[in-house]
């Protein structure tokens, strides 16, 4: 049988990995897919570079629309990134009746509803394993492996760049900026790295996982997003003393009131496996009511790890494209007419525990005032740490770990504490997740 024809839109970090791995493993991939998979056209703005990557046998163009217009192309692989031209090209490819494979989480988290509806209408597949946790087959696990379960929560380290930066800062004492530059050089970072460090990329991925886990539409605009740029080195140190590591987590959870969808730094007990995930590695914990806790670990970024997921999608599409659309795995795991309207909760309704660091005057009665405010709000204290004030020092740090409380209540108490004359600087608050 003739090989399935693939057109690549963008041959940068991920695109070049796709080309190389597909070529290197072509025989094994053929044995799995039952049909050859061949990249016959590549579009990139830098055509000279693209041609040098793929050699003379592949047609290289600078206009991606030439690929979409080519009737011989069966699958369009979008590896340009962003919400702009990529959105137009994906929509045009779907309208042209092409299957689409993409690694573009930003696009799907923001415009997924429109894209999946169009694909459903046209009977084509949009596959996106690489969009969440790169090479880890987490979409496959959630959408196919765990279909027996009512998913309770997902918590993951789903941004390699920030995990790499946090590890380099802690282990090698590197400055934030130096570690970020290294992550960019290694091909982990987004074209705009503020997406990584401000938590936006992780929120894109958490948004996609929440849709698949709970059968809700992709709703990036409802996600709470907080990155790592305001983390202080001293909090990483205090957390360690208390038996915790700080990680940027993407969390989505089913509650009686609705769905939590949030990305923020969090203290995680050091003894949890996920607390020991270092460098650019990703890990996703999924809690199902039947299976219990499961953990998926691997490379979430980089050329070939991400290509691994893109090519797995190419194999899936190759195997399934002759199957009637109604019998394929639904894009968001649940049938389109069976989606839930469970609301995504505002952050004030999220229930979690907290790490608080207060810069306080080193004088009698401070502790009683602070704990009095917590007690009055019904917040119980889990652990406390007070740094010894140095010789002649008039201030010190007070660290408090709380038990679970509604975020809205915690906000009120923090505001009251901040009003105390003995609290001398803005209070630091980091959420704490026991993940058990
Ligand atoms: N780099 C990584 O580790 C991962 C990246 N991704 C996603 O994969 C996608 C691609 O990322 P990278 O390969 O890292 O980006 P990249 O910046 O290395 O590559 C993008 C390529 O697209 C080309 N391009 C830009 N505009 C174009 C246009 N109008 N027509 C044709 N080509 C165009 C550029 O010249 C470049 O070669 C993004 O959506 C990214 O979020 C997903 C998982 C991991
Ligand atoms: N910039 C992302 C790339 C993969 O999605 C990351 O750092 O994880
Ligand atoms: Na993946």
UniProtKB/TrEMBL annotation:
Pathway(s): Amino-acid biosynthesis; L-methionine biosynthesis via de novo pathway; L-homoserine from L-aspartate: step 3/3; Amino-acid biosynthesis; L-threonine biosynthesis; L-threonine from L-aspartate: step 3/5
Superkingdom, natural source: Bacteria
Gene3D superfamilies (UniProt xref): 3.30.70.260, Dihydrodipicolinate Reductase, domain 2, NAD(P)-binding Rossmann-like Domain
Chain segments annotated as transmembrane: none
InterPro entries, sorted: ACT-like_dom_sf, ACT_dom, Asp/hSer_DH_NAD-bd, HDH, HDH_cat, HDH_CS, NAD(P)-bd_dom_sf
EC annotation from Swiss-Prot or TrEMBL: 1.1.1.3
Record has Oxidoreductase as a keyword: yes
Keywords tagged on the record: Amino-acid biosynthesis, Methionine biosynthesis, NADP, Oxidoreductase, Threonine biosynthesis
Pfam families attached to this UniProt entry: ACT, Homoserine_dh, NAD_binding_3
Keyword hit for Plastid: no
Gene Ontology MF annotations: homoserine dehydrogenase activity
Residue ranges annotated for the ACT domain, each copy included: 355-432
Class of the enzyme per the UniProt entry, highest EC level: oxidoreductase
Similarity comment: Belongs to the homoserine dehydrogenase family.
Name of the protein this chain belongs to: Homoserine dehydrogenase
Record organism: Caenimonas terrae
